[in-house]
Amino acid sequence: MSKIPTQQQYKQRQSSLPNPGITHAPSEHPPEEMVAGNGGEKGNRNFPSHHCSVSHDVDLVKLLISANTVPRRLARWWRRLCLIDHHSPIARLAFRSDTAIKREMSRQLTYYPGTIHPLSYFRFVWNCLMIVTFASVFLLIPYDITFLYRIEDYYPFTAFHVVLLGADFICLVDVVINLYTGTYDRQTQRVDLNMSGVRKRYLRFWFWIDVITSAPDPLLTRLIPTTTFDSSLVYCLHRLNFHAGCLWDLWSLLSVMKIFRFRTFLRYIRALCEWFGLRRKVIKFIAILATVLTVFHWSTCLMFLVLRLAQGTDPAQIDQRSWTMKISFWNQTSLVRYMECSYRTLYTVAHITHDFSESMTYDDMLMSLAYTISGYILKIYLLAELLIFIRILFSSASKYHEYRYELSNYMRHEQLPAALQQQILSFYDFRHPKIYSRWSLIRSVLGEQLYGEMRMQLVGPLLRGCPLFRAVFTDQQLMALALGMQYQLFMRNDIIARWNGDERAWHMVFIVSGTVALYTSGWQKVLHLEDGEHFGEFQLLFDANTVKFPNMVAVENSQLYILSRDWLERFLQPHPALRRHLIDLATEHLHQMEQMQRGSVLEALEHVETVRMQPTAGSSTKPHQR
After folding, report:
1. N or C, where is the chain less crowded by C-beta within 10 Å?
2. Which of 442, 427, 430, 610 has its CA nearest to residue 529?
């Protein structure tokens, strides 16, 4: 172990490296980590997935930032929050290894000390706050512009405008934070901490939109005389009579440009969902739901805005054919008017009902036509997404039925006997119970290491249940045996193994479920083996002169894992010492069994977990082979 460098030595070592303003997340898969046997140690701060008994945990923040006073400690705490968060799923996906995350952390501390990392914990918490802020702004801004136009809607200062003013204040703070935050491109997996370039790109476009749409217009409205409220910009557009008093709510109308930040809003939602480990289709469903609700709300406000532009707000001057004159609309509160418009938008877009006998103005006709066409397009899109989601959700079951139908057609085309067709379909149903999965594809995707760990969860208890294997092989060698075992399914009365004089064709069996019967060469039943038991480890190592080779038959539908003698010999060929040790231990076990009396053997066999004696049965029907 090398000594921990001092702060000066560490900075000198880092200064010899190039100064990358932009880092790329590693594109290659990280090497396999060597984990020590003691997995219960406390996790490393900079290497959270690494556990080691050697103490080499270096806190880079404490190493590079000294803090002797309370203000300095608060400053160091703030710097720690602004560093890349190694617990973030997005950071783990982008950098893929603890070493890359630590290198990114040291790069930020050395070259960009005043920068907020886009994958930091502070930025994640702030993005969660901006999700609530954006959702409030997207709901409040169009409602404020379209439905609040009377003097009593602004005076006195209502709770609605207090919430809107708080959202504007948070958006202004977000503008300042964006000037000190790096950027992360998800597609190219690039992290840019060079603030000069980041600020230039931000000041070109998004800065001005954020500033204009975040202006505290509720406070500006308080400065406007009440006599000017009657001459709003919408009213001037309706009357086509423009003057200086029409511009008092221009700033409020410009705030609708906040909708350009809707894509950022969806990106924040996606990051939050990924933090909680939600599936991709669930994240897409949430994004679609947020989009549909926002579009519906803005369409409702647009309907009333078009009505104000075309007809005005004076009931005496509104066309009598307008739908607003058929109901008590203009003497209601803004909330009731919003509910009326939302219902009309809903039944126009979704076609809940239509009353074609009602009279409509030309602007009503155009709005209904536009909303109807938009409704059809929306239905087609949502139906396509729903079909894709259902297809992915039930893909295994659909493949099961598809291949079963294809198998049935093939057997009918070949004119197989009905009994054989039923037996083949029963085998298929038992092998793939209402689902279909390809283990070869799963193995190629996971890789040998992860696939071996998964196989050890399935067959590891069976291998460790064999005393001979448990005493000789290590965990890594047992994993190799698990990868070499083959899954087999046998139906009732199928022959699993038949002794024909070829010792290399012998297979050791591990029973997952079902019952297997052992027969002598004369087909006399001797033993029954059930779930979790095994047989044949000695037959893998010795010839027919040393041990007996019985016949094995499935008594019922049985799921087995099979280890062939030929595969075991190829596995042991590079390890002659291991092979010798295995044979010596097996020989010792055989000698111990030979020295036991018959009564002791029967008593011992009752307690052995792999072999259980059954009463000797008479002559049974000879099983058949599929």
Report:
1. N
2. 610
d(C-alpha 459, C-alpha 260), whole Å? 55
Does residue 328 sit within a domain? yes
Q: Which residues contact 173 (CB under 8 A, 6 or more apart)?
A: none
Q: State how far the Cα of 457 lies from the Cα of 479, in Å rounded to an integer.
A: 10
Tally of domains within the chain: 2
Q: Quick one: average pLDDT of 569-578?
A: 90
Output the pLDDT for position 615.
43
- The Cα 120–Cα 109 span in angstroms is 13
pLDDT computed for residue 619 by the predictor: 39
pLDDT confidence of residue 19:
44
**Residue 21: helix, strand or coil by DSSP?**
coil
Domain co-membership, 147 together with 285: yes
Percent over 90 (pLDDT), the chain: 14
Domain of 568, CATH number, reads 2.60.120.10
Domain boundary among 337, 359, 381: 359
CB 64 within 8 A of CB 110: yes
Q: Residue 404 domain-assigned?
A: no
The span from the CA of 102 to the CA of 61, in Å, is 11
**Are the CB atoms for 512 and 559 separated by under 8 Å?**
yes
Give the residue carrying structure tokens 């994004």. Answer: 287
Answer yes or no: are the C-beta atoms of 165 and 219 closer than 8 Å.
Answer: yes
Run of H or E including 192: strand 190-192
19 pairs with which residues across the strands? none
Q: Between these two residues, 106 and 252, which has the higher pLDDT value?
A: 106
572 domain residue, yes or no: yes
Report which residue type is found at 458: L
> What integer pLDDT is reported at residue 177 of this predicted model?
94
User: Is residue 380 in a domain?
Assistant: no
pLDDT of residue 547: 83
Distance CA 209, CA 260 (A): 8
Residue 514 gets the label, from left (phi > 0), alpha (psi -120 to 50) or beta, of left
Q: How many residues comprise the chain?
A: 626
Q: What CA–CA distance (Å, rounded) separates 128 from 120?
A: 13
Q: Mean pLDDT throughout 218-233?
A: 63
- Each residue of 153-185: pLDDT tens digit? 766 777 888 898 899 999 999 999 999 999 988
Residue whose tokens read 């006997």: 417
Structure tokens at 568: 């075991």
User: What is the mean pLDDT of the segment spanning 255-266?
Assistant: 91
CA atoms of 428 and 443, how far apart (whole Å): 22
| pTM, full prediction | 0.60
Q: What mean pLDDT do residues 271-287 have?
A: 86
pLDDT at 525: 85
| Letter string b/e over residues 64-81, b meaning 16 or more CB atoms within 10 A of that residue's CB | bbeeeeeeeeeebeebbb
Confidence of residue 539 (pLDDT cuts 50, 70, 90): confident
User: What range defines the domain where residue 548 resides?
Assistant: 485-595
404 with 413: CB under 8 angstroms? no
Q: Which of 23, 59, 50, 46 is nearest to 101 (CA)?
A: 46
Distance CA 367, CA 289 (A): 23
